[in-house]
Amino acid sequence: MPVQAAQWTEFLSCPVCYNEFDGSGHQPISLGCSHTVCKTCLHKLHRKACPFDQTPISTELHLLPLNHALLQLVGAQVPDVQPVCLSSAEEAEHYEVCRMCVEELALYLKPISGAKGSAALSPSLLSRPMQRKLVTMVNCQLVEEEGRVRVVRAGRSLGERTVTELILQHQNPQQLSANLWAAVRARGCQFLGPAMQEDALKLVLLALEDGSALSRKVLVLFVVQKLEARFPQASKTSIGHVVQLLYRASCFKVTKRDEDSSLMQLKEEFRSYEALRREHDAQIVHIAMEAGLRISPEQWSSLLYGDLVHKSHMQSIIDKLQSPESFAKSVQELTIVLQRTGDPANLNSLRAPLELLANIDHNPDAPAPSWEDLESVMLAVKLVIQGLVEFIQNFSKKNHESPQPQANSKYKTSMCRDLRQQGGCPRGTSCTFAHTQDELEKWSMPACCLDRRYAMQGTFINRGF
To answer: Where does the record place the C3H1-type domain (predicted)?
Structure first.
């Protein structure tokens, strides 16, 4: 019976006996399916197959090499490299280069030491998505054909994520939300804030979940009337734009009528809030991609939900919207970004290895790469990850600067009415009215401006107006 696989973060211990890998009794050995077990557990298997997914092991167990990358991560003494049984000396040379690349890349999974010899440890420079993809690569068995297919696929995935992170590093987070909502409005749609948008979607569902067919006008009026009690700012125009967003997402079955308004009926697959919300979120992500915006799952969760709880939900939507051509398009986008910024870190030198990774066949049924191609892929992955890490260390503003509060183009001269009357504000931190007395004082008009107005008008100005 298959055994439950461990979480990806628990890759330094055997998932069968739960002992941490070491250089003696629990030496790590990776299988072609990318699962890694200790040598002791491997030789106790009743059949020559992975204990997790039952993938057959084609190589003799005693010929499977140890995973030296994992041994160096646990701080164990790494034994001499044992010779591998391959068809030719040339293949063995390619294998050796690939193995060394994997071991060097694995070091990025180690926490980095604190500044000036401090014993304190800080997290890896790589993001969790990059770490997760790198763990997949580190656990691949290169002497198995299936392992070589998987390591190439992992290399492509690492390259694609590297491009995304480099584009994110060059974006101005202060302008990101403004650019996103401008792109949404340009398509006749609107996002009203996490709380208000959620209520609007639930009211659309309430009106149509039983299969009713309503005209757009009637649907919008129903939602506005129900929303007004909690959100007095709800209007027919804004709710109409929310309905348009769902229409763009093909959530409605539309029945046209002669000389009368068309009827809109919610499709059966979207008659639950989870399904409707997922399609709604996917449409906004799609609009962002059309506009050339790259937004991380954390940022998406904050923008659409006002929290960081929905990172996985947003990541799954992003992954689903990715196409085989997305990688190549992202490389082109990065090139344009670098031209605009002057490329002080010489990231344009990564274009050739990134294009090589983008051209890898993403099909799961793709044939196994030749040893020569595998070496080229591993060297390319090593180059792009080194480039990303060096950029983060030396040029990333996020790494060297403490986050600055977003400059507010409008002074906050009065308290938010929604917060005062309803106990909550759908606009959150982007609200142009103050939510606390401290905020009111912080964003009130500067004294120099007040003095100038006093001199010009000679009248007292009520700053709380």
So the answer is: 410-438
